[in-house]
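job 3f2a | input accepted
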Amino acid sequence: IMNINNPHLNCETINKITHDQQIINLIRDYFGINPLIDSTQIFWSIPCFDNNGNIIKPPNNEFGYHYDIDGFKFLKLFFYLTDVNNDKDGSHVFIKKNKQNKQFIKSIHRRISDDFVEQNYSDRIFKVIGKKGKGFLEDTSNYHKGNFPYNERGILSIVYNISNW
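job 3f2a | predicted structure (165 res):
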């Protein structure tokens, strides 16, 4: 996985997207206050293969379910930079929130297994697929992951926050 931190500082197009008034208004309505632009990142995933053509998965479960801690209240806006038509293209997956309290496990385990998710949240798993340019907003303080890509996958992430903590 390669990443570029804060490309909005050097790329006029990403900076315009980051500061787009319709996006800012939508996030302001969600937060109840004007959002701050925390950071931007481009993540580019390039699959690696061994001599037998088998995928070499990165260590530390890089593509496993986890939640983010980017502030007290934050949202991430994502845009696919490559076509993501299925799981093998590195689709983004999240667990839809429900009205019940979060399980205690979330407060002590930042990462959970796919098996745990299938057993406990199978009715709330949502995969985001789409052509490059598809965008979506997410509260990544809830469990989510990127499926391991068997093809190159690029994604732009813009983090909006309520404070500069």
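job 3f2a | The helical segments are 12-18, 21-31, 104-108, 114-121.
job 3f2a | closed
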